[in-house]
Amino acid sequence: MEKLLSGKKLTPRWYERFPRGVPLGIFGLTMAVTMLSVFAIENAEYRRQTAQTAQTAQAVASGLERRSNANAAYLRSSAALFATQQMVEAPLFRTFIRQLHLDGRYVGSDGIGWAMKVYRDDIPTVEAIMRDGGNPGFAVRPTPEPERPFVVPVMFLEPDTPRNRRAIGFDMFSEGVRRTAMKAAERTGQPTASGHVVLQQEGRPDGLPGFLVYMPVYTLQEDGPRKLRGFVYSPFNAQRFLESSIDVNHLDGAGVRLYDEDAGGLVVLASVAPAEVSGRVIRRPIDISGHRFMLEIEAPATAMLSVMSVMTLLFGLLVATLLLVLARLLTQQAVEDRIALAWFEQQSSIRNSLTRELNHRVKNTLANVLSIISLTRRRATSLPEFADSLEGRIRALSATHDLLTQSDWGTTPIELVIRAELAPYAGDTQRHVEMGGPEVELAPNDALSLGLAIHELATNAAKYGALSVEKGRVSVRWELAGEGQARIEWVERGGPPIDQETKRKRGFGTELIEKIVAHELRSPVDLRFETEGVRCKLLVPVRRKSDFAIRQGRA
0.70 cut: is pTM over it? Predict the structure, then answer.
């Protein structure tokens, strides 16, 4: 495992560097593909609707042209018959129209009429004939202008209805649009439609627009030019003409508008409103009896998105969300695995370091024990004295070891070390121990050495010094003494006075403090046996927490 970890490079992979960006990127890419699919579907749907609208336009245009062609055929046959007659009278006209078997439908028009060319001088005679022939109110209107040599009034119009009677007697040559169409029909000899006009049948000038189709009738002559006798014509109400030419049920909601295209632009003649306004239109020019009209088809309004697009969008959103969650889980797992590998590598390094450190601590501790045993043996006068002294010092080391074990062999506060060593004496109500100072951390070796020194001082005070009498006082104070050091001062007061003999006599504890402890702390120990009591000053190295970062990382 250690070899695997040591050979494993923990450099984050590209997808681990962006644990949130990668899932969002996958989500965005999936949604982009989805939107592209939706766009393709909508584009195909738009083309389908455009083709359908074009097909509808073709069908409507064909229907209008069929109606106009059928009417033109009736007008041609009527003109051919009337050209053979000397006079077009009412019985002949009505009989012929009825024989066409139109059954009142008149292919979308208001009927078929006869408008005769009447010279100005013959107007009174024609009016009298018409009145005698069963139309007592007949009169040519409007009164022709003096410079006009002839008029073309409406003589007959079938079917004979109150609506059509409004047109009888109207001089169609008096109005410019009708006059232009009649001149074009006379020139071409073919059925010719006029531009938009308001038919006389409407009875008011602001009525619905319409148009007329004229077919000229000539007098048959063997020699010489043809002579115009009049016009067979059909008036069309544009709205009725449009509605009769199409099947509204087959429009599927589409709208239809019929325009007259003239020099002034497009003028609406008739319309079938769409179910809903869509704004998408197709225009198609159509020719009705030689006149150009414009047909406009408006596609029916549809939903913003088709059903297929909505389903694709929802499915793409679902897939994108699932991929987002899956990618997020995978990238998060990869990050967690990398963190775990880094943690395992760190733990392996910590374990190796702690093993080396423990070996070093054990060697130092055993060296201290051997030194203590050697010095205790030389100073002891009996086996029990040797055993008691050795046991106490080993217990001092053990107490400090317990503190180091609790701190995981990290830094240990000075206060805890001193309290652990003075615990047997501070708990006695007849003995007084005072201690205090700032929070200062010690390294493990320095804590062991300090604990051993405090143990020796406390043992000496309990046997011979301030802690051996009720009035004795022991004060332990510590403070920071410059960069990286702490000064600890042990002061005894109130104990038995120290004589000169005692000062000269240096026991094992004194040697232990001045030699072993001073050596381990790398600073001299100031130990004085004053008359008032023992005074000892120690300088202890202070370790910063960063010096033990390996243990902090392990924690």
Answer: no
